[in-house]
């Protein structure tokens, strides 16, 4: 018997760092059901007529109010893909591409978010690497933090680091 194909969703995400190396991340239940809140990067779905860079820039503007030129994004620095289940019980395949942005610290303007995004996000905040390591909330996906640490040091991979599929190894470093 043939399995029906799963809906597919490409995403573009932006890990944002300020001049001191603090990261702006969202915390909340997110789109995928992990049974708890976690930290995740700004970003979302890539529209059919967009490149991943265009989607990353649009999501950055919608979710933080920040507008930047494409050349300011570093990367892509990482990529992961896997099958997920939403909080509503819908399975889908996601292919996530991560970019990096170093910028001056800003107060985010969340007014451009869609209603569904507001349900997935409890807060957006700046956190130091030390605070992230000590937090009860893990960073999604597994393996992203070392790639971000390299980017903070100015080291970018020649092609995106392929993170293990969270759907097979678990979503978080614990």
Automatic annotation (TrEMBL):
InterPro entries this protein is in? NUDIX_hydrolase-like_dom_sf (IPR015797), NUDIX_hydrolase_CS (IPR020084), NUDIX_hydrolase_dom (IPR000086)
**Record key words, sorted:** Hydrolase, Magnesium
The record's listing under CDD domains reads: NUDIX_Hydrolase (cd04685)
Where is each Nudix hydrolase domain found?
7-150
Q: What Pfam families does the entry give?
A: NUDIX
Task: Identify which cofactors the protein needs according to its UniProt entry.
Answer: Mg(2+)
Q: What is this protein called?
A: NUDIX hydrolase
The source organism is Salininema proteolyticum
Q: What lineage is this protein's organism placed in?
A: Bacteria, Bacillati, Actinomycetota, Actinomycetes, Glycomycetales
């Amino acid at each position: 018997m043939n399995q029906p194909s799963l809906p597919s969703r490409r995403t573009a995400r932006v890990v944002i760092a300020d001049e001191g190396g603090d990261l702006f991340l969202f915390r909340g239940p997110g789109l995928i059901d992990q049974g708890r809140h976690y930290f995740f990067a700004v970003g979302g779905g890539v529209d059919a007529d967009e490149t991943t860079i265009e989607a990353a820039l649009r999501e950055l503007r919608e979710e933080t109010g920040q507008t930047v030129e494409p050349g300011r994004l570093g990367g892509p620095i990482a990529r992961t893909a896997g099958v997920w289940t939403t909080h509503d019980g819908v399975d889908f395949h996601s292919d996530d591409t991560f970019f990096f942005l170093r910028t001056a610290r800003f107060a985010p303007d969340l007014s451009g978010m869609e209603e569904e995004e507001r349900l997935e996000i409890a807060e957006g905040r700046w956190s130091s690497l030390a605070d992230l390591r000590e937090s009860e909330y893990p960073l999604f996906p597994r393996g992203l933090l070392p790639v971000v640490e390299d980017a903070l040091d100015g080291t970018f991979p020649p092609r995106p680091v392929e993170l293990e599929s969270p759907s097979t190894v678990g979503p978080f470093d614990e």
